[in-house]
Write a structure and sequence with these properties.
The complex is a heterodimer of chains A (343) and B (118). Chain A is an alpha+beta fold. Chain A has eleven helices and nine strands. In chain A, the strands form three sheets. A five-stranded antiparallel sheet of chain A has the order 1-2-3-5-4. The radius of gyration of chain A is 20 Å and the shape is globular. The relative contact order of chain B is 0.10. The chains are: A alpha+beta (343), B mainly alpha (118).
Amino acid sequence: MAKASTVTGQGDQSDKPFDDRLRNALARRFGEAVQLEIVGEPSMGGSNHTLLFDLIEGSARGRLVMRRETYTGLGNPFLPPENQYRLLQVARRHGIPVPEPVLELTPEDELGRGFVMSYIAGETIPRRIIRDAAFAEARPKLAAQCGEILARIHAIDLGEVDFLADIDDSRDPIAAQRHRLDLYGETHPALEVGLRWLERNRPQHQTPVMLHGDFRNGNFIVGTDGIRAVLDWECSHFGHAMEDLGWLCLRSWRFGHNDDPVGGFGRREDLYTAYQAASPIAIGPAEIHYWEVFGFVRWAVLNVMQGYGHVHENRRSLVFAACGRNTAVIEYDLIETILGRLD
Amino acid sequence: MAQDRPQADDLIRTVRAFIERLAPDIPQAQQFDARVAVHLLGIVEREDNEAAGYDAAETDRLRRLLGRDGDLADLNTELCRRIRAGEFDDDWGAMLDHVAETMTDKVRIVDPRRLADT
């Protein structure tokens, strides 16, 4: 558990104590009498700083989460927090399970860029979701729930999220990955193979939909009843609907449970059937395969990026160092998938 | 100048064993980082033992595939350029076999258990 004085992140050049700044920001929404108690900083994600705290109003106590932007490095692929906040509002309006957006930080808060959302209890760690007995009943339902949720995301009118149109990945996802890889100046023959394959096997054009962009085991809050919330909307963009389904099925989130290709917890049939029942967009297994190849390339480039941050941008950590080396494992999966030796 | 005993690989093994022994007492919040630390030291150990052989084999394969001489870094830069320019588009076979073999060797160093679950 972190003490308030050790909380780090942007905006901390301020002279005011961190707790006072956070309390002042919350007072805008909850009134001057509000009190808070820092709960902790779970370490997760490479793009955001997360802080849990309890809000105390008289005898009532409610847990909230603050997410602040931390990644500002070369080739930053992540949406700014204000757009993540808008996506939470839109998703909620469409009945997609997400934390309730509670408050946006402003420059006067001196807390950096970010927002506050409701806390939803449950498990996010993939290995536990895949293995723990507590989720034995939930596990067989998860793949179908993923299909239903994705169908709802893909049905959102693009006019409601028009700020996503300008993103590189919305214009040409293949070119976006190639451009990003080139920024880091590393030699990766396997990624060149992947990018060339993707350029030569492009699927037929399909009306673009809104994609979550990082819809996978690890970004779900799972309870004994199934998926309670979908997190981490910072990679959302427009694109081919099957991109989200391919990403969800990557070997990278199965943790050895390859009999359950969907996130290590479910079967493809359950995902596809549920999606098809809820969406007018046709499931295309060949297209999903294409977007799995794409997913390995994209995931590898993101790992190159984290390794680059460790070496060149002073974002040094054991995890980012490991990401740089993990690139080889993803490239292995990529090449074996192109060769048809993995599914 | 030769260094005294123990050698570098022994030092790494010793530090790794220390962190592994410590693991149960490391606070929950740092347990994941501790596992990553052990993983990284494992990479260093395997790289020390195996990388020279893999690099030599990769260099040989690249010289044959590209039909020219050069060191490993030059040859890989040239391979990337040719893939991107579409020079293998008519026949990916030998090139793809080479890249697959290279990636397998890299995974032998980074995370050899991954090769077992395919």
